[in-house]
Amino acid sequence: MLLLCYLREELGSCSFHSPLYKVLAPLGLRPSCCNLNTSQTCCCLLRNFMFLAQRSLCNLGSKVLRTVSASKILGLSTSTEMSSKFKNAKRIEGLDSNVWVEFTQLAADPTVVNLGQGLPDISPPEYVKEKLSKIAAVDSMNQYTRGFGHLSLVKALSCLYGKFYQKQINPTEEIVVTVGAYGSLFNAIQGFIEEGDEVIVMVPFYDCYGPMVSMAGGTPVFVPLRSKPVDGKRWCSSDWTLDPQELASKFNSKTKAIILNTPHNPLGKVFTREELQVIADLCIKHDTLCISDEVYEWIVYTGKKHFKIATFPGMWERTITIGSAGKTFSVTGWKLGWSIGPKHLIKHLQTVNQNSIFACATPLQEALAQALWVDIKRMDEPECYFNSLPKELEGKRDRMVRLLDSAGLRPIVPDGGYFIIADVSLLDADLSDMKDSSEPYDYKFVKWMTKNKKLSAIPVSAFCNAEVKSQFEKFVRFCFIKKDTTLDAAEEIIKAWSSQKS
Ligand code: PMP
């Protein structure tokens, strides 16, 4: 009815021979006034209304109505037939599947214990939540703010990171605030990568790196992290390294950038100073940019240290360092991130930002700035969230290691971040009833486990290029930034499962 009223409003009336009448009559819907010709104007308007008409028909739900094709009656082309106009741009060709979309949906069932997506279910710090709740009461905080980053936030970030870089960071020219670290990756890649450029990506990799490079017209060039043999000893993320010669062989005159991720998702590897020096030397030798994704910078466990490659000699001028409020304060839903680097790099990220999302949410930025100040003032104290969070998470990591060990799943102990990957092939799950047999083992395993054991995880082959997927398909990734009760529930499932096996 709404659609009819709308059409009547727009067209005034239509004749019995008009296209509109032909659409409506078979449905038993008769427009009242009938004196409008099938003029060009009418056809034009009708083309625009065809979507609405078709949607409405579907919504009516009746079988008969669903079989009526308005486009056939009118002889006008509609959505599917106007294929050349509605076809996707080449740059997104083949990029439609996404592990988060697929597996987050599966884990949405409330009876599933979700150790999949990196989504904390622990409470963010009270002061962080309080800051945000108070800010909404200030009128000006509900309006647009500076596009490249709310001033109080870029100032707080400049003060925080100035301590680590041991240099003054210009808050307006050397920082840009983005929609999550995703936004920073997007801005950096769109700002620099073009047709013909190669970008070195380490495997496994955070899954969006490859598609983002392809979308910009570049080619990801993959280099594997490989594990040394551990001969029955504890398997650690530090056992996974790059072969310096193999890495060097990937650099050539087309290499525009390398993407580094430390602490690493999904392995939990924290790159050592020596490892970073190898990367820095190659970047300098081949005059290459470094996009350093450091979203887990604060989450590093006992005995390990996070180094910023941008602080290495000769690296500041070629490095974009990326951070995330979501990881810093366990508020992934805030979707605020930032890039830090020299003005000659950051200005191009600012250009992409101003021509895409323009500005991030003001209240979130102000709350983040105020929360950062709380912790900037107590950086050396145990209460500082940057110190207390890794401490809390280390206990959860150790618990996960014990649990996975006891079930015989050979975990790779992470030195940083809040994920742990484990070889699940020992659980010997019977996946014969999984429909899509062409999927990698880990995809089928996680789907099977979510459905049958009510426990979710993320398949590790999602973090790999096609050529090496098979080497990682026995691994799944569990997220452990979870309440003890959530981990209790996971423990119960895994223990019951492994006792059934033995
Ligand atoms: N990089 C890495 C390595 C990540 O793990 C994530 C989030 N899981 C991101 C970037 C994106 O972070 P954000 O939620 O801030 O966009």
Helix content: 40-55%
- The amount of beta strand, in percent, is 5-15%
Structural class: alpha/beta
Alpha-carbon distance between the two ends:
63 Å
Instruction: Give the beta-strand count.
Output: 15
What's the total helix number? Answer: 20
Order of adjacent strands in the largest pleated sheet? 2-10-9-8-7-3-4
Radius of gyration over all CA atoms, rounded: 27 Å
Overall morphology: globular
Low-pLDDT stretches: 1-70
Give the bound compounds. Answer: 4'-deoxy-4'-aminopyridoxal-5'-phosphate
Described by strand count, sense and barrel closure, the largest sheet is:
7 strands, mixed
Please tell me the overall pLDDT.
87
Give a short overview:
With 502 residues, the chain is α/β, with parallel strands linked by helices. The protein has helices at residues 2-11, 19-24, 40-60, 63-67, 70-74, 83-86, 99-106, 126-135, 151-165, 180-192, 209-215, 244-250, 273-285, 325-328, 343-354, 362-376, 385-406, 441-452, 469-472, 484-501, and strands at residues 113-114, 175-179, 198-203, 219-224, 226-227, 240-241, 255-261, 289-293, 319-324, 336-340, 411-412, 419-423, 455-456, 458-459, 475-479. It is 42% helix and 12% strand.
Task: Please render the helix and strand layout as text.
Layout: H1 2-11, H2 19-24, H3 40-60, H4 63-67, H5 70-74, H6 83-86, H7 99-106, E1 113-114, H8 126-135, H9 151-165, E2 175-179, H10 180-192, E3 198-203, H11 209-215, E4 219-224, E5 226-227, E6 240-241, H12 244-250, E7 255-261, H13 273-285, E8 289-293, E9 319-324, H14 325-328, E10 336-340, H15 343-354, H16 362-376, H17 385-406, E11 411-412, E12 419-423, H18 441-452, E13 455-456, E14 458-459, H19 469-472, E15 475-479, H20 484-501
Parallel strand pairs: 1-13, 3-4, 3-7, 7-8, 8-9
Antiparallel strand pairs: 2-10, 5-6, 9-10, 11-12, 12-15, 14-15
This protein binds 4'-deoxy-4'-aminopyridoxal-5'-phosphate (PMP).
4'-deoxy-4'-aminopyridoxal-5'-phosphate is lined by residues 118, 180-182, 206, 261, 265, 293, 295, 324, 326, 332, 335, 337.
